[in-house]
Amino acid sequence: MFDRLEIKVLPPGNRFAAQVRLRVSSEDIVEGAVGEGGRGPYAADLLPAGRPSPLRATNEARRLELGEPECTGGCCGFLSVTVQRFGEIVKWSDWVVPRAAHTGEPSPPPEFHFDARQYDTEVARAEAARWWQVHP
């Protein structure tokens, strides 16, 4: 059985621009790996206007930063994963979890396997939904 990706953009707040939250099979990946108060990547970085999202999976493996603890990635490191397409499967593996003093020993998420069609559809949907983008 495949995992299921859900991409949600949170509206901009007082401290941060719009950020992306990634849920896999209904679980918030950032919160699960870095704890409450963790931050997802900025929507402008993960869903850039005019070019494909780095979430798009290709045959070439690439590492993506998907979040950071409340104290920032510059302090304790970033949550990152390797994303790669294998035919009709997209695989997330080789997690790196930030080491934050307030969370104890980091626990990486498991390896995820997505049906490439569902994955591509969700990424395309998120790329097209630009409601969060503010034009000066």
Give a brief rundown of this model.
The protein is α+β, with helices and mostly antiparallel strands and 136 residues long. The protein has 4 helices and 7 strands.
What does the model show?
The chain is globular and about 40 Å long. The mean pLDDT is 86. The strands form two sheets. The chain has a four-stranded antiparallel sheet with strand order 4-5-6-7. A three-stranded antiparallel sheet has the order 1-2-3. The chain has helices spanning 29-34, 43-46, 73-76, 116-128; strands at residues 5-10, 19-24, 27-28, 62-67, 79-86, 89-96, 112-115. It is of the alpha+beta class and 136 residues long.
Q: Give me the side-by-side strand order of the main sheet.
A: 4-5-6-7
Mean pLDDT metric: 86
Shape: globular
Distance between the termini: 45 Å
CA gyration radius, whole angstroms: 15 Å
Unreliable spans: none
Assembly type of the chains comes to: single chain
Count of distinct strands: 7
| Structural class by secondary-structure content | alpha+beta
**SSE ordering:** EEEHHEHEEEH
In DSSP terms (H or I, runs of 4 or more residues), the helix count works out at: 4
Query: Could you estimate the helical fraction of the residues in percent?
Result: 10-25%
Main beta sheet, described?
4 strands, antiparallel
What is the strand content? 25-35%
